[in-house]
Amino acid sequence: MTNWIDTLPDAARTYLDQKRLDEVECIIADLPGIARGKAVPASKFVRQNHFHLPDSIFFQTITGDWGEAADEDEGFIERDMILKPDMSTATAAPWTGDWTLQVIHDAFDRNGEPIPYAPRNVLQRVVDLYRAKGWEPVAAPEMEFFLVARNIDPAKSIEPMMGRSGRPAAARQAYSMTAVDEFGPVIDDIYDFAEAQGFEIDGITQEGGAGQLEINLRHGDPVKLADEVFYFKRLIREAALRHDCFATFMAKPIENEPGSAMHIHHSILDIDTGQNLFSGPQGGETDAFYHFIGGLQHHLPSAIAVLAPYVNSYRRYVKDHAAPINLEWARDNRTTGIRIPLSSPEARRVENRVAGMDCNPYLGIAASLACGYLGMTEERRPSRQFKGDAYEGDGDVPAVLGQALELFDNATPLHQVLGEEFCRVYSIVKRAEYEEFLQVISPWEREHLLLNV
């Protein structure tokens, strides 16, 4: 046990210093990004090099129902996957009552091949395609979320949490330090949990919505950053529960408030030289830079079903509500779907502002990278840089999930990058969710249609 502990990442070893490890949570992200797995005693974990879960965890809808996504030849037999730990992901679970570690696992079939619809494997596949070209993709996600009052009644509207002043969190207070102070105890726990887990937060700011915050993470390897977002969603929820509120990552939880995005910053390095491929020797913008943007513009409509995976996701794309309605690109312009932030040539990057915070981080980053990769390999040119307020233009983001799924199903180039089998399973599960939603009658329908039509 002692030798095994000595091989853990620094933060995990610091967390366990002079402590007796009780339990290890062996986890993997399903399609929505929920942690699935098993909790095992530490003494058992040290003796095992893998464990099993049925592949059906990837066929489950967000409501707990099932999509008919099993292998057509064998049917729904729930074959066991072999889950192997990635010990570089070992990190604390500091909210637990005992000394517990979490470890992310990768999923393989009985022949040792990666399970094609496991989200972490999908992202790794896309990263490997970049590396085969001699390119190293770099990502930096931004996470927006709301702290809201406890809500255990689905029929009741979601409301902002009560701040330490005794007043509900106020809207339209972007970047206000006073607003951030309202959530001080929750934020303190978020920082403490993140430090225990070895995560570096680049900053926390108040966003435009009532009780809406944003956390920025440092740039780095896309898989590692997706792991951190996966972990962060859990730790933020746990921090909120300690203070009698909920953290929600819904794309649009509160009417007439902005939605929550997961903006993704991208740059691509040359593996041999370490140079940013978006900048030339004299600091100018390169063909690769423009091709990446062109790929986002051309292929993102087909990827929206991954970046906006639920019916609620499309309520975020509202004109003048801090979310893009089209795929124009511009420098330092937050009204466009594709933004080029101010930076030095060495740090030149492209920001995808379309993804919602409700997407699975592995799949969201994979889909965004896939669009850029296709643009670079197809040498696509973008439209001319947009000037002005992009909200004044026409929308070219799908309006509903059904429309997005039609585009996704017909996107052959995107399927080739993400993997045909993943795309098949994803579409089936999402269509099953959409059909479940269509059976629900909303309060709006009862209010306006019951006696008027």
Description:
33% of the residues lie in helices and 18% in strands. It has helices at 2-6, 10-15, 42-45, 119-132, 177-182, 184-197, 222-241, 287-307, 361-378, 401-409, 412-418, 420-438, 443-449, and strands at 23-29, 35-41, 51-54, 80-85, 91-92, 100-108, 135-149, 201-206, 212-217, 245-248, 264-270, 329-331, 338-340, 350-352. A hairpin with a 5-residue loop joins strand 1 and strand 2 (35-41). It is of the alpha+beta class and 453 residues long. Strands 7, 8, 9, 10, 11, 12, 13 and 14 form an eight-stranded mixed sheet that branches. The chain folds into two domains: 2-114, Glutamine synthetase, N-terminal domain (Ubiquitin-like (UB roll), Roll); 125-448, Glutamine synthetase/guanido kinase, catalytic domain (Creatine Kinase, Chain A, domain 2), CATH 3.30.590. It is globular. The mean pLDDT is 91.
